[in-house]
Write a structure and sequence with these properties.
The complex is a heterodimer of chains A (about 90) and B (about 250). Chain A has about 90 residues and is an alpha+beta fold. In chain A, about 25% of the residues lie in helices and about 25% in strands. In chain B, helix 4 packs parallel to helix 5 and helix 4 packs across helix 9. The two termini of chain B are about 30 Å apart. The chains are: A alpha+beta (about 90), B alpha/beta (about 250).
């Protein structure tokens, strides 16, 4: 299945991309898709998404098709889903 | 919080264009005159928030910001002046706001919000604006707003992008629901140019004015995300975190 990733703020700057597409097996979870993406293609994104121990940063807001995902480790994806990474930002 | 029961003739003349707004009128203006807002930091984001609130005629504006004006502040902090470099930032903004509207009470606090001063600062306000860059400040302000049940408008920017939401303790997710831990990658300096914080500030100020006057619908439980580079706006429904250590979810 084809999954699209949308990047914002630091994720956009880290990758130099607004978005990226990738293929995954049906039923892949949000967390596993991100793990694969940051391991095989966009390594510059890894520290923004995962801790050194490999856990998803809880300060990252993840959306699937515009809806907030509260359990990314258990959220299965479907073909053509869009994952948006809203990285935490601040005032300035 | 303040005692305001009527408008003077000069105030009626000053605010005539907003008194004409449907549902606003003199009762809305008196609500603003009787309200106190706390703005945490008065940089590129908090400065224009203060400017809008002052122009609209809020009764009291408490502005907390430590440190002095630096050259690197000037690309986005549109109320500052080059010849003020080296002066306490909060005194600069207080001067500017009093020039803009001498009828409001501006209270400059020459310190950033912290766990030590948050309770006292929040207790003086009906409404709080979080425009600070550091998560330690933002978490301290959020915790105190939740404890005192004070609404907080949350605004943030990066590059061409911005995020704004309105936090109502006990009703909406709090800041710790969204960000349970300090983001490890967040850095004090980040890319940004003047229109981005000004745009987020205008949205945040509108949220505050709606809350204070009871007009319209706010971003309660919704994050407004914008990307000014593509000029897109998205509304994202937020969820409370059941195990939130601050608000209890």
């Amino acid at each position: 299945m084809k999954i699209r990733f949308e990047f914002t703020a630091q994720a956009r700057y880290a990758t130099g991309l607004d978005q990226a597409d990738a293929e995954f097996a049906l039923g892949t979870t949000v967390a596993d898709a991100l793990r694969s993406l940051t391991k095989t293609r966009l390594e510059s994104l890894r520290s923004l998404v995962f801790s050194a121990e490999g856990a998803l940063h809880s300060s990252l807001i993840l959306l699937v098709n515009g809806r907030m995902v509260t359990a990314p480790n258990a959220h299965p994806l479907a073909d053509a889903d869009v994952i948006t990474l809203l990285t935490p930002i601040g005032g300035g | 919080m303040l005692n305001a029961v009527e408008l003077t003739d000069f105030e009626r003349a000053t605010y005539a264009w907003q008194l004409d707004l449907p549902g606003f009128g003199e009762s809305g203006q008196i609500k603003l005159k009787g309200a106190a807002a706390l703005v945490s930091r008065c940089g590129g984001l908090g400065g224009p928030v203060c400017q809008s609130l002052a122009a609209a005629g809020i009764g009291r504006l408490i502005v907390a910001h430590g440190g002095v004006l630096k050259p690197a502040d000037l690309n986005r902090q549109v109320l500052m002046r080059h010849d003020w470099i080296g002066q306490p930032r909060v005194e600069c903004i207080a001067r500017r706001l009093r020039e803009l509207n001498p009828r409001i009470d501006v209270v400059p606090v020459p310190a950033n919000v912290s766990a030590e001063n948050a309770a006292e600062l929040v207790s003086q306000a009906d409404l709080v604006f979080d425009c600070a860059p550091l998560f330690a400040e933002r978490f301290a302000l959020n915790a105190e707003c939740v404890r005192q049940r004070k609404p907080m408008i949350e605004a943030a920017v990066f590059g061409w992008e911005g995020q704004v939401t309105t936090i109502i303790p006990g009703v909406t997710p709090c800041l710790a629901c969204l960000f349970p831990e300090p983001p490890p990658a967040w850095q004090r300096r980040f890319p940004v140019l003047a229109p981005t914080p000004a745009l987020a500030a205008a949205i945040a100020a509108a949220e505050g004015l709606k809350l204070l006057t009871g007009i319209g619908e706010t971003l309660q439980g919704t994050l407004l995300y914008f990307d000014a580079r593509a000029m897109t706006f998205r509304r994202i429904s937020l969820s409370r975190r059941p195990d939130c250590p601050v608000c209890g979810g």
